[in-house]
């Protein structure tokens, strides 16, 4: 299927690896020009080189990279200094650490909210009016399945991302944006084979005293698909939400979790 977005410009955050890279690669393969952002210059440069070397990328699709902390005003200024207008924005920031809520002080909460709620809002604010004026816009926020099914040790993430979810539910449905072919959706990953998942499981190892193999087996048993997801398939889901065909999907929270969420709604 031709997704109808070749030649568009996309900003993809946290794109040096994992789910962010999967999204950047899927968009690049559709002929989208991508600006990838992450804090670490070496890993980000490697990611850009992988995208440029990808045989599935049309040769005229550009790949730019900006090493910056997107959660800071300075980092966002660097990104918009590289390019002012974007047709597609994929927001993504590293999740806050797991732990016991009794151990988190105000600073920990502010940091989580800043990265996983306020930063996406700032990126939305900076781009949606331009998208509306041009008659096309796609914003996909990478959040977490924990928004629908909270995980006790991820309280910082549960709280901050739920705040973003509530904000998006309102702004995505404003007529000025929805009628201008600008959509805003949240993509909720479950257990994907990423460094983040490995870190969370390592935390469970320390907490329970079990081995990594035991923790991994227990996690797999909660997933009907009985496997972890891959960044490539997550990227494909993201690319579809960014496509011309997804113009009637907005304000939604779309789970990609192998069937792990047990609810009806």
Automatic annotation (TrEMBL):
It comes from the Bacteria. It holds the Pfam family adh_short_C2. InterPro entries: NAD(P)-bd_dom_sf, SDR, SDR_fam. Belongs to the short-chain dehydrogenases/reductases (SDR) family. PANTHER family: 3-OXOACYL-(ACYL-CARRIER-PROTEIN) REDUCTASE, NADPH-DEPENDENT REDUCTASE BACG. This is SDR family oxidoreductase. It comes from Ramlibacter humi.
